[in-house]
Amino acid sequence: MNETMVCAVGNVATQPVYRDLAAGASARFRLAVTSRYWDREKGTWTDGHTNFFTVWANRQLATNAAASLNVGDPVMVQGRLRVRTESREGQQSRTSADIDAVAIGHDISRGTSAFRRSGRPEPMAVGAPARPEPEWETAAADATEPEPDTPKSRRREPVAVT
Question: Any residues with CB less than 8 A from the CB of 124 and at least 6 apart, and which?
């Protein structure tokens, strides 16, 4: 429940590696996140420290990430932060940060992207009626209808007087 959710904006540093496992599709790639700051002395923007995250995607997100992402693409990743520390015998302990992605998208503030839906809707049976178009127009206000923000418990139905 108390998970650390992050949104990281950076560039794809490695080509996504896709695996089709028994538990479902999985993909991973490295994300490079570089801070930038204004250098007053030089009068230009300067790159700061770069953090690298391993991004993990599962199921449909993994399939779409593998098909959509390439090295150098500017992306935004939202997901759960997992910090791991590994210690091997005779070596220093190593700390790494992973993101279990919930959403991944191109950062369109730095370029354009063309969205294509993946997967197809289930085919309709032959002779089945088409789904009706939703009613987008609002109905004209009727004197007997309560205002939309009135709670149901406070609504009054019209009473016929005889």
Answer: 130
Which residues form the domain of 101? 5-106
Segments of the chain scoring below 50 in pLDDT: none
> Is residue 125 one of the residues assigned to a domain?
no
pLDDT in tens, 86-109: 888 888 888 889 999 999 999 999
What is the rounded distance in angstroms from the CA atom of residue 140 to the CA atom of residue 22?
A: 54
Q: How many CB atoms lie within 10 A of CB 159?
A: 5
Q: Would residue 128 count as lying in a domain?
A: no
Q: SS3 for 63?
A: helix
Whether 81 is covered by a domain: the verdict is yes
Q: Does residue 133 form part of some domain? A: no
Q: Give percent of the chain with pLDDT exceeding 70.
A: 72
What does the CA dihedral 16, 28, 51, 43 come to, rounded to 10 degrees?
30
